[in-house]
Structure formats: structure tokens, C-alpha cells
Automatic annotation (TrEMBL):
GO function terms (MF aspect): saccharopine dehydrogenase (NAD+, L-lysine-forming) activity
Location of the Saccharopine dehydrogenase-like C-terminal domain: 144-391
EC number: 1.5.1.7
The UniProt record lists the keyword Oxidoreductase: yes
Domain Saccharopine dehydrogenase NADP binding: 4-140
Enzyme class: oxidoreductase
InterPro entries, alphabetized: NAD(P)-bd_dom_sf (IPR036291), Sacchrp_dh-like_C (IPR032095), Sacchrp_dh_NADP-bd (IPR005097)
Gene3D superfamilies listed in its UniProt record: Dihydrodipicolinate Reductase, domain 2, NAD(P)-binding Rossmann-like Domain
Naturally occurring in which organism (per UniProt): Deinococcus soli
Keywords: Oxidoreductase
Protein name listed in UniProt: Saccharopine dehydrogenase (NAD+, L-lysine-forming)
Keyword Oxidoreductase found: yes
Domain of life: Bacteria
Length: 405
């Protein structure tokens, strides 16, 4: 049906590519492009080994995603209908520029942030609205799990359960064990920048800033465990409070073990998480980039990873019947099941599957509309149906408040 380019060849790209291979009625030709083509070649080899009956045709190419002319040349040569960007968030704008120049649709899983500033927000990408709309092209932002599915969960609440959402809590638990002393489950540089930054949450029409990991509580994650969870700032909060103005408070919670926090505190204390370059033997090197180089690659954690992830959204407010209501929508995914299916750990899987689904819904026309969009602005029902089909079954809990005030 459609040709697509996947930019990136890390853990999430591996999942996106293999789910595209499973969904070969929609994705007929796929080019995986990345700076280190050997990583893309490995993904293609695994597809041939584990999914020999897929009719999708896969090829690979080298590309520098920071280079717009190089991206334009790649896109023009291959002729896709869309680009699925699972490269680094620093590269979102160059890839969007290339899509505009070549007339193809765009999807990513994380919003743009500048490489030299530990700050991420949607303003840079929202500014592309008119350019994409005028060209009849669609850009879908943040279509992973969080961001992505969590925004669809919020839209589902609004469509099916609530007249008004007043309190929103997004919760993300990785109750898994990879056996390493210290490792991150997605790109180490992005992960550590996110965690060591000040927290933020929305309350009464303004942002409230906190110290890193300052606010915590024990939260029960259904079918998984009760885990200590910490308030972070996460990008979907920015768009959700914009598109659901009845929200009085919105927070994002994530679990971290004591050993992880201890290692992170030590690394931060000695300057290894800094993004400011230092002089090292005549070269300029940011300590966090060196740290990324010595930590295990997230995709290398998959084999032997045990435990589950649980990601969900709790909403409180006024129900469709006019009465106070609390409702929880969530997914639980087992790491070992992910590895057996697509040779990935659960964090990569839960991000990669919604990216494939979002691209499918765009290509099939269910979500296709010109302009720049966040997931919660689209009908959540097709995503829910597809998540249940493609490996991320959704559960709901009514009238049980898991996250406390």
C-alpha cells in the first residue's frame, strides 16, 4: 500500500520496523536510514530471520539527520508517502524541513529540544502548523506511548467518560530488571537530561516548578506492583492542558529504584550529567555524551529482561451523568514477551507500537488531516482498537483512585 522511511535504528526503530513487517498490508516498502547503517542492517537481518513470511520489502541507507539537503536527497530518491522519525529529538526540525521540501507526511515520538539547552517544548514544532497545512501535509507529534497513547487515553476519557476532566495523572512504571548496575531504558542522554531537570506540573492555570524528584508517593500499578513514583515534567502535559482547558491540575509520575537514583546522584555530583562541553585532550566533549558512550545501549538490554511495564492515565472530574467520577485507563506489557516477539525490551516496545499504529492510521486516512497535530486532537477510538490488535491491550478501572491528591 505505502512506502515509508524510518529514520533511526535504535531500540524504538527496531520495534517500529518489525511491527511494519507484521503489518505488510499497509507497509509494503520500508527504508531504514541512520548514521550507522550497520545497525539498520541488523534490524533487516532479524526481520528476515524471525518474520520470513512478511511481504514488506526492507532496505537500508546512511543519512545524517542533521543535514537537510542530505535528507531531501534520500526522500526524493526513495519516494515515500511519509517519514517516521525515531531519531534524536534534536533532529525533529531538520526532518520536518526535509518533509516540507519533498512533500511527504511526518510522524515522531518525542518533541523537539535543542542540543545545547536542557529544555523541551512544543512551540518550535507548533510553529510549523501553517506550512504543513498550506502544503496539504500532516505532521503528527509525539506518537509513542508517553507522549502518544497517554494523550489518546485522555481523549478517550473525555469522549466516553467525562463532561469535564479536572485532575489528570499520567503514571509510568517500569517494574523490570535488566541485571545491570546502571542503565537507561531509552537514549541515555535524553533520559538523564529529563530526570535531572527540575520537575513541573500544572495547577490552577500555571506551571508549578519543583526540584528534581522532589515530590513522590507510593502508587499501585494494577497487575504489577506498588512502586514509589516521582513527579517529572513531561512534554504531553503542555499540549493536554492546552487542549483540555477544564483541567485544574495535571501531573506526570515515573518510577525509579533506589539504586538507580543513587547512581544518578553520584554521576550528577561529579559532573558527568552536564551538557556543557569541557576541554578534553584538545577536544570539546559534553560529559553526558561521554557517559552515553560508556553506558549500555538500551536495545542491548532486551535479552533476559524480566518484569513488566504499566503505563496509564487517571482522570477525575464530572462524569457523563453529572456526578463526580474517577477512572483509570492503562496497559501492562511483559518484557520477556516483547523480546520473544520483536527482540526488544518493553520500553522500546511500548513506544514503537503506537508509532507504527499512528503511521498506519495516517496512511489509511482515519487520522489524515493537513497541519501539525498532537495525538489528543484526533479520535482515540481507532488507536484503541489498533493497540488491542497489535500487542498493547488496554484495561480500565472505574471508581478506584490510585493516585492520591
Amino acid at each position: 500500500m505505502s512506502k515509508v522511511i524510518i529514520i533511526g535504528a535504535g531500540g524504538v526503530a527496531n520495534v517500529v520496523a518489525k511491527k511494519c513487517a507484521q503489518n505488510d498490508q499497509v507497509f509494503t516498502e520500508v527504508l531504514i536510514a541512520t548514521r550507522t547503517v550497520a545497525k539498520a542492517d541488523k534490524i533487516v537481518a532479524e526481520i528476515k530471520e524471525h518474520m520470513p513470511h512478511s511481504k514488506a520489502v526492507f532496505t537500508t541507507a546512511t543519512v545524517d539527520a542533521d543535514n537537510v539537503p542530505e535528507l531531501v536527497g534520500l526522500i526524493n530518491d526513495f519516494g515515500p508517502k511519509m517519514v517516521i522519525n525515531v531519531a534524536l529529538p534534536y533532529q525533529d526540525l531538520t526532518i520536518m524541513d526535509a518533509c516540507l521540501e519533498t512533500g511527504v507526511h511526518y510522524l515522531d515520538t518525542a518533541n523537539y529540544e535543542p542540543k545545547d539547552v536542557a529544555k523541551f517544548e512544543y512551540s518550535w514544532q507548533w510553529a510549523y502548523q501553517d506550512r504543513f497545512k498550506d502544503k496539504g501535509l500532516m505532521a503528527l507529534l509525539g506518537c509513542g506511548f508517553d507522549p502518544g497513547a497517554t494523550q489518546a487515553f485522555t481523549a478517550w476519557h473525555a469522549k466516553h467518560h467525562f463532561q469535564e476532566i479536572h485532575y489528570l495523572d499520567i503514571v509510568d512504571c517500569n517494574n523490570g530488571n535488566h541485571g545491570k548496575a546502571f542503565a537507561t531504558n531509552f537514549n541515555p542522554e535524553i533520559n538523564i537530561r529529563e530526570i535531572t531537570a527540575n520537575g513541573r506540573y500544572w495547577e490552577n492555570g500555571q506551571w508549578v516548578e519543583t526540584q528534581p524528584l522532589e515530590i513522590s508517593q507510593d502508587i499501585y500499578y494494577p497487575k504489577v506492583a506498588t512502586r514509589k513514583s516521582f513527579v517529572l515534567y513531561h512534554e504531553e502535559l503542555e499540549s493536554l492542558v492546552k487542549h483540555f482547558p477544564t483541567i485544574k491540575r495535571a501531573r506526570f509520575w515515573m518510577t525509579f529504584g533506589e539504586a538507580y537514583i543513587k547512581h544518578l546522584n553520584v554521576l550528577e555530583g561529579i559532573g558527568m550529567t552536564s551538557i556543557e562541553p569541557i576541554d578534553f585532550r584538545g577536544m570539546k566533549v559534553a560529559p553526558i555524551e561521554f557517559l552515553k558512550a560508556v553506558l549500555p545501549a538500551p536495545e542491548s538490554l532486551a535479552a533476559g529482561y524480566s518484569g513488566q511495564t504499566c503505563i496509564g492515565v487517571q482522570a477525575k472530574g464530572i462524569g457523563k451523568d453529572g456526578q463526580p467520577k474517577v477512572h483509570f485507563v492503562y496497559n501492562v506489557k511483559d518484557h520477556a514477551d516483547c523480546y520473544r516477539e520483536v527482540q526488544a525490551q518493553g520500553v522500546s516496545y511500548t513506544t514503537g507500537v503506537p508509532a507504527m499504529i499512528g503511521a498506519m492510521l495516517m496512511l489509511q486516512g482515519e487520522w489524515m488531516q493537513p497541519g501539525v497535530w498532537n495525538v489528543e486532537q484526533l479520535d482515540p477510538d481507532p488507536l484503541f482498537d489498533a493497540m488491542n490488535k497489535w500487542g498493547l491491550p488496554i484495561s480500565e478501572l472505574a471508581d478506584i483512585e490510585l493516585v492520591k491528591d
